[in-house]
Every structure is written in structure tokens, then in C-alpha cells.
Design brief:
The complex is a heterodimer of chains A (about 120) and B (about 110). Chain A is mainly beta and about 120 residues long. In chain A, about 0% of the residues lie in helices and about 50% in strands. Chain B is an all-beta fold. In chain B, strands 2, 5, 6, 10, 11 and 12 form a 6-stranded mixed sheet that branches. In chain B, strands 3-9-8-7 form a 4-stranded antiparallel sheet, with no helix packed on it. Chain B has a two-stranded antiparallel sheet with strand order 1-4. In chain B, a hairpin with a 5-residue loop joins strand 5 and strand 6. The chains are: A mainly beta (about 120), B mainly beta (about 110). At the A-B interface, strand 5, strand 9 and strand 10 of A face strand 5 and strand 6 of B.
Chain lengths: ~120, ~110
């Protein structure tokens, strides 16, 4: 089956620093990837849609200057949390769709646990 | 507009007994519906999906769900719970004109007692 990886799986950083999270589709190409944020015991909240070769589309209330998304190739999207603060601590999950159908299955990465001290 | 409501935040069953996780949806067009499972500190795994084919959908690990348009429901069932089924379950909806954006339910935590 389609596999999506994320790196790192967990990261601890100091307040004010930036953290980059990578999302890779290992055995398929994805023109679109999605970034989610999940707080403990809560559901996933879509942050942005990452489109290969173009700017990401951010959901309402998500700061695009805070959460920088780059989708440089058909197998890699990155999320950079800039000037991280403790309230940015969360579980970040990406997903990708191997097909061209917008209603087909998405495959999720294992997530990245970010802790900002 | 789309939305999905999982009617129970927590369900507890005994091992070997049936599982029922309830989900209702709202969609302007014919929806695609999914159930995903998430084990602690892990990503999401697809259990099954409905995309306008057979209304009774069979998934992995013995799970199945039935799409009922008249009731706008997509409940997840399993005849006999196993300890390894303990996890968080998400009902998810999308439709063709949403560019792949998924709408997640609030999640149902399933506990399985020995």
C-alpha cells in the first residue's frame, strides 16, 4: 500500500527557534498533500493544502507566516514552524493522495510530536 | 456544507462482544465517507471507505460500515471486539468539489475490557 513518512517523529525545541517537518510519499507521487494539527484527545484540524509547484492554501485562522509550507517536488512537502512558542506544541500529521481523484483515499504519515519549551 | 458528527465520544465494550461506533453526516452532494483508526501517538490508518458503490462496505480487521442515505448515517460495526481494537476512531467525509479536503468527526475512543 501507499506509504507516507514524516521526519522527525518527535522534536523538542526552545521558544523562538524554527522547526522543519518533512512529509514524504515513499512509493507514489502526490501533487497535493495536506497538513493537520491535533491537540491531545481532540480531532484533526486541517491547517493547509500543499500544492506541488504553487503556494499552499491555508485554512481560516492559520497564520501563513507562522506555518511555512513548501511543496518542492511530487514526493516531498515541508512544514516549518517559525519562531515557535509553547502554544505551538502539538501533534502534526500530513496526508497525501496517490490518485487524481479528490474523493479517493488519503494516506497519512505517522505524525510529528512537537514540544516547544 | 459538509459536516460529520460522531455520536459517542467514548465507547466501552468487553472483549468478544459487538462494536458499534455511530456517525452521522451532512453533505450537499454525494459524499465519500471513510473510517480511520488512530492508535496512541500514531498516524491514521484507513479501515474502510464508501464512494457510491455498494452501501455495505467491508474493511480491514473485521470492521464494516453501512451507508444509509435516508438516515444520513455511516455507522461502524464489528461482530466481536479484540483487545487490539482499543484506539481512537474517526469518521470522515468529503465530496468531489472539495479538492480532497477531509472533514473529521470529533472521534470516538473505543475501550475494550478483558
Amino acid at each position: 500500500g501507499a506509504v507516507v513518512s514524516q521526519h522527525p517523529s518527535w522534536v523538542i525545541c526552545k521558544s523562538g527557534t524554527s522547526v522543519k517537518i518533512e512529509c514524504r510519499s515513499l512509493d507514489f507521487q502526490a501533487t497535493t498533500m495536506f497538513w493537520y494539527r491535533q491537540f491531545p484527545k481532540q480531532s484533526l484540524m486541517l491547517m493547509a493544502t500543499s500544492n506541488e509547484g504553487s503556494k499552499a492554501t491555508y485554512e481560516q485562522g492559520v497564520e501563513k507566516d507562522k506555518f511555512l509550507i513548501n511543496h518542492a517536488s511530487l514526493t516531498l512537502s515541508t512544514l516549518t514552524v517559525t519562531s515557535a512558542h509553547p502554544e505551538d506544541s502539538s501533534f502534526y500529521i500530513c496526508s497525501a493522495d496517490p490518485s487524481l481523484s479528490s474523493t479517493d483515499t488519503q494516506y497519512f504519515g505517522p505524525g510529528t510530536r512537537l514540544t516547544v519549551l | 456544507a459538509q459536516s460529520v458528527t460522531q455520536l459517542d465520544s467514548h465507547v466501552s465494550v468487553s472483549e468478544g462482544t459487538p462494536v458499534l461506533l455511530r456517525c452521522n453526516y451532512s453533505s450537499s452532494y454525494s459524499p465519500s465517507l471513510f473510517w480511520y483508526v488512530q492508535h496512541p501517538n500514531k498516524g491514521l490508518q484507513l479501515l474502510l471507505k464508501y464512494t457510491s458503490a455498494a452501501t455495505l462496505v467491508k474493511g480491514i480487521n473485521g470492521f464494516e460500515a453501512e451507508f444509509k442515505k435516508s438516515e444520513t448515517s455511516f455507522h461502524l460495526t464489528k461482530p466481536s471486539a479484540h483487545m487490539s481494537d482499543a484506539a481512537e476512531y474517526f469518521c470522515v467525509v468529503t465530496q468531489y468539489n472539495q479538492g480532497g479536503k477531509l472533514i473529521f468527526g470529533q472521534g470516538t475512543e473505543l475501550s475494550v475490557k478483558p
